[in-house]
Structures are given as C-alpha cells and as structure tokens.
C-alpha cells in the first residue's frame, strides 16, 4: 500500500502471503484468479540479458509468466530483452525513473554508481549460492541491500541464481602470472579489480556484446556464467581454454529491481505474488543451472573441443592474496561499504566451517579422495 516502508518484506495479510507462497512453492498450481474481477495491471520489465538467454533470461521470463498465472491473468508483466526498450546496462536508471516498473539484472553492473552493489552478486573467494541466500534471508543482508538502493527509489530482491561460475574463456593458456600481463578480459565486479592489479586490463561490456568482442580480438578472455549459458552464447567458437575455478564469482544471484512507488502501489495480494515469484525462482533456477551446466560441460568437452583447465597454483594464490587486499581497501572507502562487507564476512565466518564439515569432506569421501 502507498506509504508502506519496503525496508523489510512488506506486511501483507496472512491469506495473501500463504496463498502466494503456497502456489509459487508448488510450481504454479492451476489456481483460480487471485484478483478476480479487478481491472488488469500491466507492468514493463526491462532486462540486461538477450531475450530467453539460458539462465538469467529464462528466469526473467519465468517470473513474468508466474506472476500472470498466479494472479489469474489480472497482473501481466511485459518483458523487454536487452536493448529492446533500454540498453542492457540502462535498466537501473530506467526503473529508478519509472520508465519501467521492474528489471531483471545483476547487482555488480552498478559498481560505478554504487560500489557496494557488487557484494550482492558475488565477492571473490566468498559465499557459495546456498551461503549467499542464507546471508540475505537470515543474516541481515536484505536490510543492507535495501538501504543501499533506497536513495534511488528502488527495492532489490534475489530473483534466480546461475550457481557457481566458471573462471572464463581464454584465447591463450595461462601458465604463470606473467601471462596475465596486458590480458584484455571482461570480468566485472571486484574480480576485475583483482585482475587489474595483477596486470590484466578489465574491459566493461554488456553480455550481448561479449562473443563478438572475443571473436574479433577486442577481448583476449571473458567470463560470463557457467557452461549452459556460456555455450548458448557461443564462446566455444572463439576460445578453447575454459578455466576453473570461478574465483571471482562463487555465486550467481540474479537481481530483480522494483520501482518503489510502483511496488508500494500494488494491492497487497499482487505485491505478495510478484515478490514470492522472485523468491521461488531462486531455488528453481539454481536446480536448473546445476543440471544444465553438467550436461553442457560434457558437450563442450566431447563435441566442441574445449579443454577445462585449472588456474595454476601460483596464479590462484596470487588471486587470493590480491583479493584480500582489494576487500580491505574497499571497506575503507565508505562507512556503508564497511558495514555491508563486515556483515558479509561475518556470514562467511559463520557458514564456512559448516560447509567444510558438511560438504567438502563428503565430496572427498564420495570421490574416494578423502
């Protein structure tokens, strides 16, 4: 309702929340119109992705479809792919200005405008997807995210996840730190700054321009997401070395941006529906990405002639050491940066030992390497 604070999840009736959550969690039950008899509501959603790009583009369309189905057709969201209404990296300003009511994107794109936004996508050597969701929902991350975007009239929420990322596509092999010198690489977020300090040249480009840039030599290397999305983008046609791990993005949270006035102006049941559709997409997208990445990795190696290569140990050690310095300096630049990073690091300190005990040892035992 108008005038309601969105710093925390909006307070809506028990009936609205239970109804929307139950339907979303059940995978779109065939439900009667939630808003039967109400005049239709139509929104615009702008995205940073090519339309229906496997991974984030799929998530954006699925959220729009879910909202329409859960509302019984009374709430429709018209989706615009990157460049169809506004440029891929113009969606933040478009939603802030009210050109569109909603966007689907990733927070690290706004590093130049609000540096701390990168933390809400990924931090080098940081939280894994399940750990990141835990921080946002249980560790105070959402409240900090809200504070960061509030001056722009925006409400951010998680809206999908592409999982653990790969290290990227390289046209030449990386055998030592010397091979990073002068390397033109697309790597956004704090990972790009780590690469810059080790002698590489980060280049900022929207997703839709990456393949051509890699193919024509504008880029020597690029990261994007994981095998499923990367193969759809065609990177295997321009480079054959696929590096791991994705030290720069151990998590792939998709970001939904809402114009605060538009969100507050929705009836409470429709507001609950759109927020719960985004929340439901986190689990669905992560499951889908893990499944499809596994299949696409096999195709890349067996059909496309791609070689998966680990970063050399000395390169990985330098990346880790440099990342630690970047994070210290990042925190010193602004009090809110420090507050956000302190919260993030507290979550990592709490969650990492459990992840190690529960997952690392199990995986070693399962693989017979314990």
Please render the helix and strand layout as text.
Layout lengths: L13 H12 L15 E7 L8 H15 L4 E6 L10 H7 L4 E4 L23 H10 L2 H9 L4 E8 L6 E3 L13 E3 L2 H9 L3 E2 L7 H7 L4 E2 L4 H7 L7 E4 L8 E7 H5 L3 H35 L4 E4 L2 H20 L2 H33 L3
Helix pairs in contact: 1-10, 2-10, 4-12, 5-12, 6-11, 8-10, 11-12
Protein name: TRAP transporter substrate-binding protein
InterPro entries: DctP_fam (IPR018389), SBP_TakP-like (IPR026289), TAT_signal (IPR006311), TRAP_DctP_sf (IPR038404)
GO molecular function, one term: metal ion binding
Describe it.
- Strand 6, helix 6 and strand 7 (201-202) form a beta-alpha-beta unit.
- The termini are far apart.
- The chain has twelve helices and eleven strands.
- The chain has a domain at 14-162 and 251-290: Bacterial extracellular solute-binding protein, family 7 (D-Maltodextrin-Binding Protein, domain 2, 3-Layer(aba) Sandwich), CATH 3.40.190.170.
- The strands form two sheets. It has a six-stranded mixed sheet, covered by helices on one side.
- The protein is globular, with a radius of gyration of 21 Å.
- The protein is of the alpha/beta class.
- Substrate binds at residues 165, 186, 223, 249.
- This is TRAP transporter substrate-binding protein.
- One of its GO terms (biological process) is transmembrane transport.
